[in-house]
Amino acid sequence: MMERMETASDHTVTGFVRADGTRLVNGAGQEILLRGVGLGNWLLPEGYMWKFPEEGDRPRKIERMVEHLIGPDKAADFWALYWERYTTEADIKQIAAEGFNSIRLPINARFLLEDEEEPLRIQNDRLAYIDRLIEWCKKHRLYIILDLHGAPGGQTGAIIDDSARNLPELFTEEKNRRLTIELWRLLAERYKDEWIVAGYDLLNEPLPDWFSAYNDQLMPLYKELIAAIREVDSRHMIILEGAHWATDWSIFTEKTDDNLMLQFHKYWSNPDTESLQAYLHKREEWKVPIFMGEGGENNDDWYVGAFQLLEDHCISWNFWPWKKMDTGNSPCSITMPADWSKLVRYLEGGEQPDTAVAEQILWEFLDNIQFERCTYQAHVVRALFRRAPLRIPAIFYGNQGEGVSFGRTAKTENQLGFRVQDGTGIGFEEGGEPRHNYWHGRGQSEQRVFVQLEPGDWLAYQFTVVRSGEHRLRIKLFPVEESVTAAITANGKHIGNIMASDVGKWQTAELVLHNLAPGQVKLIIQAEVQPLKLEWVEMI
To answer: What one-character DSSP code corresponds to residue 130?
Structure first.
C-alpha cells in the first residue's frame, strides 16, 4: 500500500509535472496528487448536459439546430457568446478556492479546425480561448490537462466525440489519423513552454468494446502521436487512456515513454479496491502514476465512497463535470430557460418555434450559463473532499486495509459483491437484493446498507474539518441483541462513547466533539460489549 498523501500538499502548483516512478512530482520535486474537475460542455458541447434528446446529442447536431432556428449570422453570434461565457475566470477562481489543483479541458478538434480536410488548418481565434484559460490557470494556480475529447473523424464513434456517423473514423480513414498527429504536434509546439499544462491526454475514451476490432491500432497510433509530440516538446507528460471508456488496459503492451501516466474512468461501479485492482497492478508493473480522469454523474453518497477510495490508493482524480443544466450532482447548475421544452419538442419532431421565440430562449440560456447566474451546490464539493458538514455511509470506511482502516475479530462472508476481500459484515437492512449495484444517478441500491460490528470490531472514517471549535457527531445504529456502546476515537484520542438502548430498531445517537482543529480527522468507531449495525456517520 502506498502512503496516502495529505490534501495540504496538493496546493503546491509549481513547475512542470512529471512522472517519477509511480508518483507524480511537481517542478520542485514534491509529490502531488492531481485533484480536479473537467470543463465538459464548453469546447465540446454534450447534448445530455443541455437536456436534449438524441436528435441534439452532440456538437454538430446542436449547431445545426441553432442555425436552423435563428439563421447563420445569429448562430455565429450565439456561439461566440457561448464560448465567451460558459467558462470564465470566475469559474477558475472558484475551482481554485475550493481546493482543487487542476482542471481537464476537453477539446473538440472540429472546434479548432477550419474544416475536416487536409492540410491541417487551425482557427487561431479558437486557440485564443485555450491561451486565455492557461493564463487564468497560472494566476489561480491550477494545472491544466489538454484532453483531445473529439479527434478528427472520432476515436469513439459515439456522442462524446462528435462523430458524424457513429463510427470511429479516426481508425478507418488514414486522413483522420494524419490530421490527429499534426494537431497534437501543433498543440505541443504551441504549449511546450507552459509549465502550468500538466500533460497531454491524447485520446478520450477510444474504441468501446463494439469497435474492439480496431483495438490493435490504438497503441501504434499512440506511439505515432508521442513521436510527433517529442519532436517539439520533451518536457510535458503524456497521458494514455485505455479502450472501452478508458477501462480496458489490456491494450497497454509496451511502455512508450519515460514521462507517462495511464488513465482510467469510473462511473456507476463499485467504489471498492477490487474495482481498481487491474489498474493498481499495471501501476506496479510499469512503475507509472495512474489517473482517474473522469468520474461523477452520480450522487453524494457515491462520491463520498469513490473519491476517498482514490485518495487512499494515491490515485490522482478529476470529477466530471463542473457545470451542466438543471442538475443536483455537479457543483454548478445552469437554470433551465422558461421555454426550453420548446427546443426539446422541436428536436423530437414537434413544432418549430419562430425565430424571435427561439432567439429569446437561446439568449436566456446564454445569460444563465455564466458562473454568477448558476446555482452553486457546495454539497457536491464537500462530498468529493469529505469536508464537514457531511454524512458518510457506513460502508465507506477507509480503504487502506485491516489494521489501518478497519479491525475485525473474525472474517464475515459477503454476498453483496462489494468490498468482499475486507471480510466485514456488510448487508442490506431489509434483504431482497442479491448484490449491491451503482446505477446511473444513484450512489447505492434502493435498499439501505449497513456494516455489522461484533464486539471489538472497528471502522475508520476520514473527515476534513474546516473550522475550529465544537462539532456534532451523529451516528445511525442498530443494537442487535442488547443495549450497545460504541467507543469514539478522533486522531488517536478517545473522545467519548455513543450508546443506544432501543434493541432491534434503527436510531440516531449523538456526541458533541469539543475543540477540533481544522484539518484531517480520522474517526474510529468501535463496538464494545455487544454487536451493533451502522448505517451512516455524520459530522456537523
So the answer is: H
Is residue 480 within 8 A of residue 534, CB to CB? The reply is no
Is the pLDDT reported for residue 155 higher than 70?
yes
Query: Each residue of 133-154: pLDDT tens digit?
Result: 999 999 999 999 999 999 999 9
306: three-class secondary structure by DSSP? helix
For residues 302 and 299, give the distance between their C-alpha atoms in angstroms, rounded to a whole number.
Answer: 6
Q: DSSP alpha helices (H): ranges in 212-323?
A: 218-230, 243-246, 277-286, 300-312
Cell 514521462 belongs to 259
| pLDDT one-digit tens code per residue, 375-431 | 999 999 999 999 999 999 999 999 999 999 999 999 998 888 899 999 999 998 876
Write down the residue that cell numbers 426539446 correspond to. Answer: 344
Instruction: Establish whether the linkage from the previous residue to 119 is cis, with ω within 30° of 0.
Output: yes
The CA distance from 406 to 457, in Å, is 8
Q: Kindly state the helix (H) or strand (E) to which residue 137 belongs, with its residue range.
A: helix 124-140
- For the full predicted model, state whether its pTM sits above 0.85: yes
Instruction: Categorize the per-residue pLDDT at 446 as very low, low, confident or very high, splitting at 50, 70 and 90.
Output: low
Task: Please say whether the beta carbons of 518 and 465 come within 8 A.
Answer: yes
For the chain, give the number of residues: 540
Under 8 Å between Cβ of 144 and 236: no
Output the CA torsion sign for 319, 323, 327, 330. positive
